[in-house]
Write a structure and sequence with these properties.
It is built from three helices and no strands. By secondary structure, it is an all-alpha fold. α1 runs antiparallel to α2 and α2 packs antiparallel against α3. The radius of gyration is 17 Å and the shape is elongated.
């Protein structure tokens, strides 16, 4: 039973990591990265490392995607401002 749960979690990690790499839009990439963080947190919990899972949940699924989204927003605003001649 434990091996089956670990195998499913590993397959979900591989699928979400592949989706994160294959996605071209940075906003969607950040959202898929958030999903990958949640799946990794589940994997760590299944592997009996709940402290690492909680850290991954906070950093990998919340903080990093948020910082990426804010960065993309700032870069797009700067690009529009420079493109308008101001």
């Amino acid at each position: 039973m434990d091996e089956a749960v670990i195998a499913v979690a590993l397959v979900l990690v591989a699928a979400s990591a592949t989706a994160a790499v294959a996605t071209r839009d940075p906003v969607r990439q950040a959202l898929v990265l958030s999903v990958l963080g949640v799946v990794l947190a589940v994997l760590f919990t299944v592997l009996q490392a709940p402290d690492v899972g909680l850290s991954q949940l906070a950093v990998g699924s919340a903080l990093t995607p948020l910082l990426l989204l804010l960065t993309v927003r700032k870069v797009r605003r700067r690009g529009r401002r420079e493109g308008s001649g101001k």
